[in-house]
Amino acid sequence: MVTKGNYLGEFEELVLLSVASLVDDAYGVSIMQYIEQEAGRKVNISAVHEVLKRLQRKGYLKSKMGGATQERGGRRKRFFLLTVSGKKTLEEAMKLKLQLYKQVPDFSLKLT
Amino acid sequence: MDIRPPRWADKFLVWFCNPELLEEIQGDAHELYFERVSKEGKKIADWKYIWDIIRFFRWSNIRRSNDEFRPGYFGVLWNLNVKIALRHAFRNKLIFSVKMLALSVCLAFAFVVSAFVIHEFTYDNFHQRHDKIFRVGAKVEIAGVATNYAISPLALADGVDEELPDVENVCRVMYTGKPVFTIEDKSFTDQTTLAASSDLFNVFSFEFIRGSKDALAEPNKIVLTQSMAKKFFGDAEAFQQTIDLPWTQLEVAGVIKDVPSNSHLKFDALISWDTYDFYDGWDNLNAYTYVQLGEHADENDFYNRIAELFRNHQEDIEGDRQLAASDKLKISPIMENIMDIHLSEYRDEDIAQKRSKTNVYILIVVVILFFATGLINFLNLSLAEQTTNFRRIGILQVFGGTSANHGKLILTNILITVFVIAPISTFLINAALLTAESYFSLYIDKSVFTSTPFILVAGAVVLAFIFSTRINLFILSRSNDIINALKGKFNSRQSGFQVRELLVATQLSFSIIMIAIIVIIVDQFRFMNSVDRGFDDKNTIVIKMRGGNFSEAETFQESLRKLTGIKKVDGSSFYLDIIETKELFEVETKEGRKKMLVAYMNCGYEYLDAIGIKISKGRNFDKSHGSDNFGAYIVNETAAKYFGWKDPIGKKIWGPMGTDRDEGEVVGVIRDFNFASLHNKVEPLIIFPIAEGWGIEYVYIKTDPIRPSNLISQIEAEYKKAYSNFPMEWEYLDSKYQSLYKEDYEIRDIFQVGLVISIFVSCLGIFSISAFLVIVRAKEMGIRKVIGAHPLHLFALHMKRFIKFIFISIVIASPAIYYLSQHWLSNFAYHIEITAWYFIAPALITLVIVLITAGYHGIKNSRVNPVDILKYE
Questions:
Q1: What is the distance between the alpha carbons of residues B457 and B460, in angstroms, rounded to a whole number?
Q2: B76: pLDDT strictly greater than 70
Q3: In B283-377, at which residue ranges do the beta strands (DSSP E only) sit?
């Protein structure tokens, strides 16, 4: 499958982080609500699904179907988990950002 | 309350969504929905749900076929399939070309005929408001005898205009004959010309090239069609030029596009109504009146009000025809939508081009037969072909080919067929149209081919074709056949066979129907030619007189009588196919004097002799009886019966009323003669001599069978001497008589072409089926021969099957033949009776054809050398 290299897009990174922090309860709706709640960004559920699919294809996420549920007509949820490579990519991305951030001279001063 | 997301949105999701993703997507969407219902209310939740579903509708979620990588897939192994199909075609060149040719011929023919049928059914639909345009005719009842006229009183148009408010436009048209147009020094005489009131262009949508809709508002204006303008003026501008009539001068006020071929009103030129000085009374029944109703007007209501209008003007309509109170004249309107005029029943004095509905329906049957024949033949041949390919199919299936894969193979075959057939049929259709135009003078506008009905028909045929090829698939994918095929067994009682037998029998029965109907049609024409028409149309020339001045015509006739090669010359008012005139006569009957509407003709003294009308009682008009001129009548036998006369000679007749003729007595009775076509019954007729005031309209010239070859030019020279202004218009009476059957001849021509094609196609079918049978049963025949069967016996064995086909097809065909022929023959007042022969003869003809086509392989079969076949294993 064609993917855009191993880089993480901004939204991809956000979703990946949400999955990581939601741990065992990461599925479409919960991820969407988490993003909305933490980042204050309104996203459509279909966009979340799209990114989840893409991340799974890149190998950063794995998924399994959960058990039957009550609130959604008995339909199962697909839960997502971070893979090792996903974790690594996330760490690298964070590290890179932090590293770059630190190199900015007097970053905090400039802002004020 | 049952709260659930909008059902259709949910269904839409289930429909498009990839089943593997459906559960999570639907689950998430529903979860969100119910959360929103509790927070924001149902309405908002519904909308948001719909929005979500729409957002989910994206490429990565859409369900798609999952056999992307299986062998035989369209994209991947496409070229391989094409290769197989092409290789197959090249290997069986004969069968392939036969298949393609037969199918394209059938399709082309069926398409041309259906174009013709559609053309017939879409008469006058090019007018913008065609559903609201009606023609008002008149039903005239006198003394209990009703006549349906296409015409109506001249005053009707004004009456409608003044008294009925919701009529948007009303116009009247009158046939003025074919006037002589003179432009500079050239004369033109053969233009169908109508006098039309100015509103014509508001009612009908004829397209203007020059000029505008009010072109006919003033007197002495003429509107020409495009081709007439070209004929009159060449490439020069016709607009505002002048054209001379013998009595006035016209200005070209407009040029319109040629009248479409599907217009019931056909004309070359229109002259403005006010140019003429028509008598505008209610008792002048001569105009064609068209009304265009308003958008919301109700036609039944309108009909009632026109009927009332007629009743109110009862006295005006009667005019100066003094009628006895007992035989009151009753007149009521006949309203027809203009689209119905072409196919409706016969009306007196109609200028519309008519076609009988039966003939059109028979043509529809032909179309269906042909589509079916072509299709069946194609199916048959490809089925036969594929049955011999069982082994290949078997191997394909062993390697995991599904019936869907096989379907793709067949689809490839269809595509190749379409690629081959499309150009051939297009070519054939064009050729057929050209032939129809030049040989049968049948003009079909090309625009029919782009009209919606035609596209629908063509689409339906293509669909039928594609679906019917699936039948083959169904038959072929039966597993035990394939197992047998791989075992090398070829059972001649295979299941595909029964289907094929049925197909061949159907196809053969179509051929039998075709043959039977063409035999009946030809026989009916033979009957019409042989039947005693009561007059002799051979060697007769008819000249149309201009102006009809009596004494001028007399001198002209006198000069003709001197020419060698001419037997008799005399004038008459009667001619084939002219709109016949009925007049009121008073007739002496048992109950006293009675008024009757009877057709009449007047003629010269020698006329009856000249065209061989026989006197059965009494005598002919005679110059030596001085009183004949104004006091003698001759009636035909039908009239005598109609008036209730046992001994007609000496009975009194008065009339026609309102003319200079008064009382006279019947001097003779003539045998019935049928001047109109045999579609119609002979009507009562009264004949009286031509006299000074009446004019001579047609001059009949009876020539010797052996006549000088330049006789026509001699006559023409005499004509030139008498009437220097006009070109001579003449016709042979017998060819004119034939032209009355133009429509029937068209049907016959179509059937004849159809017959040839149908026989050709079924011959091909039978030929290839018998070839196939020979292959299938080769081994059986070999063994039979080894055991000692006689070649003749083998031949009979081969033929037996085809004889069976014929019997089945006779059973299928007979009711159809009976029904169709009864229908067609009922068009004729005088027709042949259907006898058993009309069923037996076509069957015999088909039998012979089948014996010949199948016999070839039968003989081959019987002479087989068993060694060649049996050494195989």
A1: 5
A2: no
A3: 285-293, 329-337
- Complex-level ipTM: 0.85
In this prediction, residue B73 has a pLDDT band, given cuts at 50, 70 and 90, of very low
Interface subset of B 531-550, CB within 8 angstroms of A: none
Domains (ranges, CATH) in chain A?
A: 10-102 (1.10.10.10)
Interface residue B56 vs chain A (CB under 8 A): yes
Vertex B524, ends B523 and B530: CA angle to 5°? 90
- Supply the Cα-derived Rg of chain A in whole angstroms: 16
Distance in angstroms (rounded) separating the CA atoms of residues B364 and B810: 21
pLDDT bin (cut points 50, 70, 90) of residue A80 is very high
Across the interface, which of B30, B56, B61 has its CB nearest the CB of A72? Answer: B30
Q: Is B845 in CB contact (< 8 Å) with chain A?
A: no
Instruction: Please tell me the pTM assigned to this model.
Output: 0.67
Q: Tokens 């003869």 appear where? A: B841
Tokens standing for B453?
């009905």
Cα of B531 vs its chain's centroid, Å: 26
Q: What would the pLDDT profile of B344-393 be if each residue is shown by its tens digit? A: 887 777 777 778 788 788 888 888 888 887 888 787 777 777 666 666 66
Q: Which residues have C-beta within 8 Å of that of residue B298, sequence separation ≥ 6?
A: none
Q: Where are the alpha helices (DSSP H) in B41-77?
A: 42-56
Q: Residue A49: list chain B partners with CB under 8 A.
A: 24-25, 28, 56, 61
Cross-strand pairs, B143: none
- CB atoms near residue B2 (< 10 Å): 3
With CB atoms and an 8 Å threshold, state whether A76 touches B27.
Answer: yes
Smallest CA-to-CA distance from B264 within B124, B126, B127, B134 is with B124
Residue B492: which pLDDT band, with cuts at 50, 70 and 90?
Answer: very low
**Chain A residue numbers touching B32 (CB-CB < 8 A):** 29, 45
